[in-house]
Q: What sequence folds into this?
């Protein structure tokens, strides 16, 4: 049975921790989370029971019936074969139009939100124009698209035309080999085509696509008139040719999307009139038909319209025009006008708050069925989830007022009720945020969802202002617009709105693996434990690093090499995305692209560049341990360390214990924290800021891990922090390494706060909190005090696991009984039983933070 | 004749449809698996043929 937290003596009193809900004492501790889901209606309960998850584990789909579809790649390829010789942007638009005209559209039982990305509900779409090798990977396994001979022909076609084909010649074979190891650096983005973006949903909802077509037609007419008018001026007018093509492509794309939505409308009407016998469902199907006939062609009127229009736009932007991971939006701001119209004013599509909650539950289940035809590496990188889907709520409005509203609450209530891993939620924390909404944030976290993750509102807004100064066209975020941001993917903020949003991962993204870089720094740039090749510059053998500063500077050079390489790979990808992977639909819904006649890949108004350092804390702790035991105390020599590492510590157990017990980050230890602070600021940030990206801005580090702490750790040899080769690394940008934070939750906060958050784009902090305290009657009060302290310490981010080891162990034994057990991995949450055993163990090994009297005193809690 | 226009699954496009063309229709089929019922709609031409043909009643 669930047990209460032990009583604690605090400020002269004995504090008891009874459950907030006394009935919980009757629930078994080993299956608590199986009792927390409360779908708000019978419909959402049924939808969840039959949800077609596309979760992956160790690179494989958990559901055996998942297959790769052929329709998307068939129709884009068919169109490309027919459009040779046309301008590339027009070819992209025609490709999209061909897909949308000919693909299969789907309606499922009980659905209210229409639209899917493949020809059957258990299929995922393929993107041969991004990466034909990903299609080849699928073809070799049980997910193979059929017919296989057609898939083979498609791969052959794109092997001459893909992003990889265009970009690879600009790198030497040696450079390609080094990147493709994915040991110190991520593979080049032009090999995978991985992307993320923030669609400007606002224009779709506010204007409708007919209005966007009208705007493009007006620009087109003006441009053609200008071309024809006397007197010809080449300098002014030749540039109009490309713009004319872009506006024409926008019109083709938008007309195709309207027509596609109306195919869904026809399907609903046909099913209502020919297949469905339940009068209530018939009526609903006709309502859905009416909405999809009108939306997204016209402006939205109520919440049902807005939800449907947003979903159609999401599908095109993220899954059909090209693949982009994510579900980036500031959802409560985006939908607030429609929530207000439907729930409060009842002027359009009237409904209750409860109805709105049901709609958000339906949305969560819709996202839960959305899969992506990603390559194996990216299927391994997000274990236990379909893909990355992260939306944002909370924060402040443009005028500095509280951004929380009743729509925020409906979104959070839906997440708490339905218990799905996706989409994850980011809550932008501001002291002005209303308590009622913060209580709902707490309830989601307390119930073990692992989200909302919390971002510091003011830090994110200040970052938008910082980057706006580098805007190439002088049109970056205004002070007001800087308040309108969400996370682009897991961690990094980016603007939302009608223009200036991030459209491609080649703006921000790509990773370097800090622990591996540390390993090769000790070996003259040679990777002895994994790839057996020279992976970086020659910076000297370990015995050459006579002083700590020698080590520091050698690491700096290895890091410089890696960030320079991945930055150039990113921008070269961008160069070819602009020329061959235009996004006419995305461009059509961006006010900037519409005004300027530019493709969304090309137009950059608000820079947002970053690189992801992953496994940083293992590297930082290794730096600390070497300084302490070799350079300061001189207890061991560099040769002894070299021998110990080459033997994976075997035969050096006492020495390993010394290195393991050396000061570690996350314990409010001045010695460790000052080195780690310098590491983050002097090397990670300062070196990266010397690199300017396509958008003309210096890059910042965005520390996060996705599932790569688990997966990348397997490629990292033994490290001087006492870690064995192959073991998992730290699980976030600035999270203390597994089990090494032993001084309680406030010591972690004090350590993390040492690093100046303004020098980083983002930094992920995972914490695992005591479940009995969080579920006690004091849980909210203690957590709120923790959050206020976190905010005052100016920390960028924090997220929580609240799940007992007992329940995770029980789930390992009987996974079929623990389908609702969710854990936070990194910037996303995963179903625990869908993780590999190795991945599960990394969650269990995280320190479960209890609160001592000293912690409570530091937080200023009155109990 | 085994052509789409004589099939139960064929629904001719209304003349005001954006994608209207002479003889074009939607092929709508109901399917069911362990997760429930769903309906698939695909564009077709009235004189096309396919192996899933089911004569109209």
A:
């Amino acid at each position: 049975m669930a047990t209460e937290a032990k009583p604690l003596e605090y400020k002269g009193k004995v504090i008891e921790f009874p459950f907030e809900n006394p009935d919980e004492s009757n629930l078994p501790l080993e299956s608590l989370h199986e009792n927390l889901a409360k779908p708000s209606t019978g419909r959402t309960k049924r939808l969840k029971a039959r949800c077609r998850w596309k979760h992956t584990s160790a690179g494989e789909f958990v559901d055996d019936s998942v297959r790769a579809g052929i329709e998307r790649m068939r129709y884009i390829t068919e169109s490309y074969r027919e459009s040779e010789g046309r301008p590339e942007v027009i070819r992209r638009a025609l490709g999209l139009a061909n897909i949308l005209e000919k693909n299969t559209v789907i309606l499922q039982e009980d659905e209210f939100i229409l639209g899917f990305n493949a020809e059957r509900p258990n299929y995922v779409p393929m993107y041969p124009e991004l990466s034909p090798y990903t299609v080849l990977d699928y073809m070799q396994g049980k997910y193979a698209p059929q017919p296989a001979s057609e898939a083979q022909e498609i791969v052959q076609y794109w092997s001459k035309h893909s992003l990889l084909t265009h970009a690879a010649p600009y790198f030497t074979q040696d450079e390609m080999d080094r990147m493709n190891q994915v040991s110190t650096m991520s593979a080049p983005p032009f090999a995978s085509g991985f992307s993320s973006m923030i669609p400007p949903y606002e224009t779709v909802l506010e204007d409708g696509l007919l209005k966007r077509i009208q705007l493009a037609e007006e620009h087109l007419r003006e441009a053609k008139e200008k071309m024809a008018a006397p007197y010809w001026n080449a300098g002014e007018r030749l540039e109009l040719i490309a713009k004319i093509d872009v506006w024409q492509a926008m019109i083709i794309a938008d007309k195709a999307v309207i027509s596609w939505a109306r195919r869904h409308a026809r399907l609903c009407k046909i099913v209502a009139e020919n297949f469905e016998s339940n009068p209530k469902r018939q009526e609903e199907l006709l309502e859905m038909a009416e909405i999809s006939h009108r939306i997204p062609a016209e402006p939205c009127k109520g919440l049902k319209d807005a939800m449907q229009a947003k979903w159609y736009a999401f599908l095109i932007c993220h899954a059909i025009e090209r693949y982009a991971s994510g579900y980036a939006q500031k959802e409560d701001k985006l939908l607030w006008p429609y929530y207000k119209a439907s729930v409060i004013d009842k002027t359009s599509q009237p409904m209750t708050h409860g109805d709105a909650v049901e709609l958000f539950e339906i949305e969560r289940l819709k996202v839960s069925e959305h899969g992506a035809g990603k390559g194996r590496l990216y299927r391994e990188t997000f274990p236990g989830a379909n893909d990355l889907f992260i939306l944002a709520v909370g924060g402040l409005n443009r005028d500095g007022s509280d951004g929380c509203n009743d729509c925020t609450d409906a979104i959070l209530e839906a997440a708490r009720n339905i218990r799905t891993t996706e989409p994850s939620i980011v809550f932008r924390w501001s002291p002005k945020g209303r308590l009622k909404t913060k209580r709902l944030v707490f309830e989601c976290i307390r119930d073990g969802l692992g989200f909302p993750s919390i971002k510091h509102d003011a830090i994110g807004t200040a970052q938008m202002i910082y980057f706006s100064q580098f805007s190439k066209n002088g049109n970056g975020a205004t002070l007001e617009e800087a308040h309108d941001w969400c996370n682009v993917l897991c961690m990094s903020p980016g603007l939302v709105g009608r223009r200036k949003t991030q459209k491609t991962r080649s703006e921000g993204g790509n990773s370097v693996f800090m622990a591996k870089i540390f390993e090769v720094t000790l070996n003259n740039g040679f990777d002895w434990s994994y790839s057996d090749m020279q992976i970086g510059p020659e910076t000297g053998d370990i015995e050459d690093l006579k002083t700590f500063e020698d080590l520091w500077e050698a690491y700096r050079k290895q890091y410089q090499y890696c960030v320079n390489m991945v930055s150039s790979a990113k921008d070269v990808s961008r160069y070819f995305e602009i020329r061959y992977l235009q996004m006419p639909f995305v461009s059509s819904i961006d006010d900037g692209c519409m005004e300027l006649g530019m493709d969304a890949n090309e137009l950059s108004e608000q820079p947002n560049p970053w690189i992801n350092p992953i496994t940083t804390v293992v590297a930082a702790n290794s730096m600390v341990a070497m300084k302490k035991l070799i350079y300061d105390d001189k207890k061991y020599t560099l040769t002894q360390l070299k021998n110990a590492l080459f033997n994976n510590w075997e035969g050096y157990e006492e020495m390993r214990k010394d290195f393991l017990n050396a000061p570690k980050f996350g314990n409010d230890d001045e010695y460790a924290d000052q080195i780690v602070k310098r590491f983050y600021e002097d090397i990670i940030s300062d070196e990266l800021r010397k690199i300017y990206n396509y958008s003309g801005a210096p890059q910042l580090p965005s520390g996060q891990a996705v599932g790569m702490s688990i997966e990348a750790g397997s490629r990292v040899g033994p490290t001087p922090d006492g870690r064995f080769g192959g073991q998992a690394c730290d699980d976030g940008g600035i999270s203390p390494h597994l089990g090494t934070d032993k001084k309680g939750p406030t010591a972690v906060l004090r350590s993390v706060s040492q690093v100046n958050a303004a020098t980083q784009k983002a930094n992920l902090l995972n914490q695992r909190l005591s479940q009995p305290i969080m579920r006690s009657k004091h849980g909210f009060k203690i957590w709120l005090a923790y959050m206020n302290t976190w905010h005052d310490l100016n920390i960028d981010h924090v997220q929580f696991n609240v799940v007992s080891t007992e329940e995770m162990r029980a789930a390992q034994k009987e996974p079929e009984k623990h389908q609702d057990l969710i854990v936070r991995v990194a910037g996303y949450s995963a179903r625990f039983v869908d993780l590999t055993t190795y991945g599960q163990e990394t969650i269990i090994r995280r320190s479960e933070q209890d609160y001592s009297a000293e912690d409570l005193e530091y937080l200023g809690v009155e109990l | 004749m085994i052509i789409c226009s004589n099939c139960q699954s064929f629904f001719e496009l209304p003349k005001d449809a954006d994608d209207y063309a002479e003889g074009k229709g939607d092929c709508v089929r109901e399917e069911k698996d362990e997760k429930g019922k769903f309906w698939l709609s695909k564009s077709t031409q009235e004189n096309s043929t396919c192996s899933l043909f089911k004569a109209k009643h």
About this structure: The radius of gyration of chain A is 27 Å. The interface with chain B takes residues 50, 52, 65, 101-110, 119-122, 255, 258-259, 262-263, 266-267, 270-271, 274-275 of chain A (CB under 8 Å). Residues 176-192+505-572+601-764 of chain A form one domain.
